[in-house]
Amino acid sequence: MVKTAINLPTHQWALLATGAALLTALLMLSMATGAGVYGAAQVFGYFRGDAALLADDKLAMIIHTLRMPRTLAALLVGGSLAVAASLLQSATRNPLAEPGLLGVNAGAVMGLVIGLIYFGVESTQGYLVWSSAGALLGNLVVLGIGLMLGQASPLKLILAGVALSAVFGGLSNYLLLANQTALEQFRFWNLGSLSASELDAVRIITPVVLVALGLAAMLCRQLTLMQMGDSQAKALGIHTTRVRIGVLVASTLFTACAISLAGPIGFVGFLAAYCARLVEPVKLITQMVFSALFGMLFLLAADILARWAIQPFELPVGTLLAAIGAPVLIAIVLRGGFRSLLTVR
Amino acid sequence: MTVLQVRNLQFGYHQKPVLHDVSFSLPRGKLIGIVGPNGSGKSTLLKLLAGQLPLQQGEVDIQGQALASFSTKALARQLAFLPQRPVMAEGIRVEQLVQYGRHPHQGWFNQWSAEDARQVARARDIMQLEPLWQRIASSLSGGQAQRAWLGMILAQNTDLILLDEPTSALDIGLQTEVMESIRHITTENRTVLIVIHDLGMAARYCDELIALDEGRVAAMGPAREVITKALVDRLYNTNVDILAAPDDGAPVIVPRRRTS
Amino acid sequence: MNTSIPSGVWRLQLGKATVLLHRRTWLMTLLMLVTLLLLFVLSVSIGSADMSMREVIATLGGQGSKLHEIMVYKIRLPRVTGVVVAGLAMGMAGCLIQTLVRNRLATPDMVGVNEGASLAVIVFALYLTLGSWPWWASPLGAALAAVALFVLCRRPGEQGYLFIIIGIAISELFNAVGEFAMSTQPLTHLGSVYLWTMGHFAHVSYQTTQPITLILLALCPLMALINRPLALLRFGDATARNLGVNVPLVQLGILGLAILVASLGTAIGGPVIFVAMAAPILASWLTRDNLAPIWLAALCGAVMLMGSDILVRVLAQPNEIPTGIMTRILGGFLLLFLLIKDRQWSD
Predict the structure, then answer these.
(1) Which of A339, B229, C151, C237 sees the fewest Cβ atoms within 10 Å?
(2) Which pLDDT tens digit goes with each residue over A91-143?
(3) Please, where are the H alpha helices in C158-205?
């Protein structure tokens, strides 16, 4: 074991380093990909300080209003959804939990729709506030049901997520159909896409994500201990209710940030958190670090693919992730990662 | 004609052999227990005989006719099988459960006959289900539920009855109750074959035993002859004494303690 | 106690044949039929120009004014009959799947079949247009989804939850693709397809309903035949086989039938989710038995869908909100309620 201030086994350090390198590579690739004539050479030239390129307004615009916000948003959204999934999986003791599958995304969307239609909200802050309200409601119900069902029926929680998605989704649709203009804007956004990312939005949302990350980090140790069960955790002096409220707030913030930036994106949280648990099955803080890393990697990669696959058109990244994530989920479930869960009535 | 005859039965799951060259024939009207350590293939053998698992090698004859030649419904009229953990449907009453036992004898245009009524009444009386008759079956306790299941099996009115560990999850009082009921069934010249975990119970109640050891028949015959110190020690890797029960001399197994 | 006839049952003797009619079941069937008829008339009476129920009955009997006749026969009746047939189909399908998977929370909607059907219709309606409404694409898409599901999960009876999880993943997949396919076209171009995907009956025509009804009628004898082995499957494969049921064959048959019927119901007005889940539950509750017969579940499905349709038309006036949205919301609540109701306290 490599001895450092933070204790990690060597293979995890190696993985972390590889991940960081991969992330950097993807960041550069993301900046270089897109519709238009500007490829890698021009973009790197721009950042290196090449005078000719710096003077090119079009290039500047593409970088600052299209590619950079998008890339940064991918980091924020991927990281947020992944860490939220890790938190939810830990809090509900359910390896399939994530904001998308549990209906929290749907709640955030509904909140945003209400804000949009009834309160004419247009600013990023406004989106954040309203999607937080919706996400909060979704989280409350899901965590509440998770508490009520206990560990005996982990798959019933997924069904609860299906139910919540249905209710929230139905209500959103109901409201939108009464409002045709909103509907047209909403349809594409609802598939989850980073194409409308703005630097301003990124600037506003980044501190919120950092706050949520801080909160999540503080909860880690207690959550890890709560894996043994509430009664044991309480015996060790942990305030389980406070921890759950912390999870509620953190998950709500993460979801709201992700939704406000990119619309509802499912599966990336689940995939990232699953891989993180393969790397580190026990310590939650390590899991969350890897989860965030994988989330950023997956979403960035997916976004690059979304821009590249059907050039010059663009696939919504949410659709792409569903197309990849669903088969992966099936493969994982079939493999037997969750065999023990599936025998429960 | 023996009620059940098995010849050279072999069976395996996914390349793992479970039963090797099992052969025996069952005498009519007796209670026969299949005993053996965990993993010796007892349940697998029973399921094969009941037609629940497909035959791979060997032959099984029911009343002189090959098992494979029976249709599912015809087989259901010849033998009844109760699995180890039967699934109880929600919301049905004991009366309905026992009535379902008549299904193999009914058809789409023949959904209820006087014979059905008679068999159901008989089953109810033998298993003493009268006080439970209108109770919801899934709300019954372990012992009561088992009697209800046995009622259904009885209503099926077959010559051969196969039971997979019918007393596993029950306390000693309920175990004896269920075993007494099972013994009662054999008085009508029916043959009952049970897989039984508890060697002591098997020795007490069964007329004959088939002892399995790693998928082979280690011994077969009357309980008194099969249950010997040599066999029990070898099969279960123990050190026991065999005593005679005070009332009828049936073998009683007493494990010796290693330390005092 | 006299057990010559099982309790709570009427015995019908026709020559040498004896058929049992459970008293409560048939009473409830009658009740649901009457309710359905009432809702039928009510549904025809509401709309952009309200008619009274008496006027509706008069028109149906040939005694109405010319205007009323046009409204009823040309506009409203096609819609309402479409709703009834779709409801019947969903009720039947739900009953079959729930018994097969031995789980009250199972529904054809959650196994990707609806989304597959929907996707196929979207593809044919938008990209491979052949003129008339491609309702027949629905069973095709459903079959595709079903094959995928079956290949992945071979024994739905013993692995109930695996079935559902894989189904959810498949639905998410098809859903995403379908929504994407629609998003590439502007709303105006989509026409009624968009609303159809949310379960909308306003544009249903007899061209669609008629062939579907005929197919469903043709399937009825099959379903009647399957009712008895279906009841025995509740006890698990081992016990069902013990009682003479050819389990693999019956399971396959039920699954195929359920998917076919669900896709036919979906083809009419689009996916109306949760009706298939709720209908058998209502039917069981009415008969106080855990397995109500298929026809009762079908009737309950029709009643529930009619109710939702009426509700959504009344609440959303003058907008046209798809009925499927109402079933989605109400059904979601029902599912949540069911999940919480059966909970076991732990920890």
Answers:
(1) C151
(2) 888 888 888 888 899 999 999 999 888 888 888 888 889 999 999 999 999 88
(3) 160-183, 187-190, 192-196
Q: How many contacts, defined by CB atoms under 8 Å, are there between B and C?
A: 98
d(CA C326, CA C307): 10
For B106-150, write each residue's pLDDT tens digit.
Answer: 887 777 888 899 999 999 998 889 999 999 888 998 888 999 999
Given CB atoms, is A182 within the 8 Å cutoff of chain C? no
> Looking at chain C, which residue has its C-alpha nearest residue B116?
C4
Set of chain C residues whose Cβ sits within 8 Å of the Cβ of A167:
328-329, 332-333, 336
What's the longest Cα–Cα distance across chain B?
Answer: 68
> What is the spatial order of strands in the sheet that B65-66 belongs to?
B16-26, B4-13, B57-62, B65-66
For residue A254, which of A19, A30, A88 has the smallest C-alpha distance? A88
Q: Which of C152, C165, C175, C308 is the best mutation test for A, with the most CBs of A within 10 A?
A: C165
Sequence-separated (6 or more) residues with CB below 8 Å from residue A323? C173, C176, C177
Domain B2-78+158-255 sits in CATH 3.40.50.300: yes
Rounded Cα gap, residues B44 and B53, in angstroms: 8
Three-class SS of residue A5?
coil
Closest by alpha carbon to A264, among A23, A84, A95, A120?
Answer: A84
Output the CA torsion sign for A199, A203, A208, A214.
positive
Chain A stretch 259-318, residues whose beta carbon is closer than 8 A to a beta carbon of chain C: 266-267, 315-316, 318
Contact between chains at C290 and B89 (C-beta distance less than 8 A)? yes
User: Contact at 8 Å (CB) between A302 and A317?
Assistant: yes
Q: Which residues, including other chains, have CB under 8 Å from residue A235's CB and lie 6 or more apart?
A: none
Q: Calculate the average pLDDT of chain A.
A: 84
**Beta-sheet pairing, B79-82 with B160-164:** parallel
CA pair distance A233, A227, nearest whole angstrom: 8
Q: Are C114 and C262 in contact (CB under 8 A)?
A: yes
Residue extents of the structural domains in chain B: 2-78+158-255, 89-157
Q: Calculate how close chain C gets to A127, using CA atoms only, in Å.
A: 22
- CA distances C271 to A219, C89, C144, Å, are 42, 12, 16
- Are the Cβ atoms of C18 and B109 closer than 8 angstroms? yes
Strand runs labelled E in chain C = 9-14, 17-22
pLDDT of residue C161: 65
CA-nearest residue of chain C to A158? C165
What does the longest C-alpha to C-alpha distance in chain C come to? 71
Q: What pLDDT shows up at residue C159?
A: 58
Does the pLDDT value for residue A1 go beyond 50? no
Residues with Cβ within 8 Å of C158's Cβ and at least 6 positions away in sequence, in order, are C237
CB contact under 8 A, A141 and C328: no
Residue A34 half-sphere exposure toward CB, CA atoms < 13 A: 26
**pTM confidence score:** 0.80
Per the CB < 8 Å rule, is C347 touching A151? yes
Looking at A99-103, A283-287, C101-105, which range is the least confident one? C101-105
Spatial neighbors of A86 by CB under 8 A, at least 6 apart, are A272, A273, A276, A277, A284, A287, A288, A291
A174–C321 C-beta distance less than 8 A:
yes
Across the interface, whether the CB atoms of C239 and B80 are under 8 A apart is answered no
- Across the range C300-319, mean pLDDT stands at 88
Q: Which of C100, C243, C338 to mutate to test the interface with B (most CBs of B within 10 A)?
A: C243
Give contacts of C17 with chain B, Cβ < 8 Å.
109-110
CB atoms within 10 A of CB C344: 11
Please indicate whether, in this complex, the C-beta atoms of C243 and B101 are within 8 angstroms of each other. yes
Return the residue of B nearest to C7 by Cα.
Answer: B95
